[in-house]
Amino acid sequence: AKTIPRKPLIYLISTLNATFQPDYEFSSCTSQDFSRETNFELVKSEVDSRFLSSIGDYYRSLSSQLWSIIDDEINIKASEIFSYRPDGTSDPFSESGIIWSLNFFFYNRKLRRILFLTCRADCKTSTNDDNDNEHEGLDQNNYLTFEGVMD
């Protein structure tokens, strides 16, 4: 994995802290917790796939608007894209009942702006017990929440 340069790394960590404090703190993150995404189409495909699996037809009608808004705010072609793939120990993406999460940063150096796209799907049947089978046989009707933030 390539090392993220110091300045962008500080911005990425600061964005996580600003988004999730006071509940979570990310100062112990390192460059290895992030990846530089070199292919926007793969990022778009992952986001579209996750959203389609969770909210189906509703996302079909929303997809082009979402990407248009993101592009208007950050200029995707002029941005570096990073992903945050947490280790699953102490972050908002490892809580009980989380089915999936995604975290992408669009960093436009020229605009001096970061757009953070984060979303997670929670299981509506989830409880805080340690039932290993709680996600078996789920379909899109079992998703309780669809949380997302664009900062």
TrEMBL record:
One of its GO terms (biological process) is negative regulation of transcription by RNA polymerase III. One of its GO terms (molecular function) is RNA polymerase III core binding. Coiled coil: none annotated. Gene3D superfamilies: Repressor of RNA polymerase III transcription Maf1 (3.40.1000.50). Belongs to the MAF1 family. GO terms for cellular component: nucleus. This is Repressor of RNA polymerase III transcription MAF1 homolog.
